[in-house]
Design goal:
mainly alpha; de novo design (two linked rop proteins); ribonucleoprotein
């Protein structure tokens, strides 16, 4: 397996693990309307990160691949917003901070990957 394939495999696994952590996190939210909305949006955004990275693996071109990674990055940034907001409705703020740290790292990896791929494309 090439370094590139290994990197992609690890990134998908990390995004999958992150989505599972978010699912467990929201299961402890209070049962009220505001929490439902935050839960719904947070789950959609967090799961979209891994879904777009996975979908990128079947991209028809390098441009298409970059586009899927861009969507994953946008979802990571949206996830940051919803995690930040969730801190107002939960008691376990440390867990939210740990998830914010992980999604920030995922976003940094995605951003760096996009930049690298765009630079290689212009050569």
């Amino acid at each position: 397996m090439s370094d590139n394939q290994e990197f992609r495999k690890k990134l998908i696994a990390r995004a999958f693990s992150f989505a599972r952590m978010v699912i467990a996190f929201v299961d402890n939210f209070p049962n009220k309307r505001s929490a439902w909305i935050i839960t719904d949006q947070l789950l959609r955004a967090a799961m979209s990160i891994g879904a777009n990275i996975t979908e990128a693996q079947a991209a028809s071109s390098k441009r298409d691949f970059i586009n899927f990674l861009h969507h994953a990055l946008k979802s990571a940034n949206e996830t940051k917003f919803w995690l930040g907001l969730s801190k107002d409705i939960i008691d376990n703020k440390e867990r939210a901070d740990a998830l914010l740290k992980e999604v920030a790292e995922l976003a940094n990896i995605l951003g760096a990957s996009i930049t690298t791929l765009k630079d290689k494309r212009s050569i």
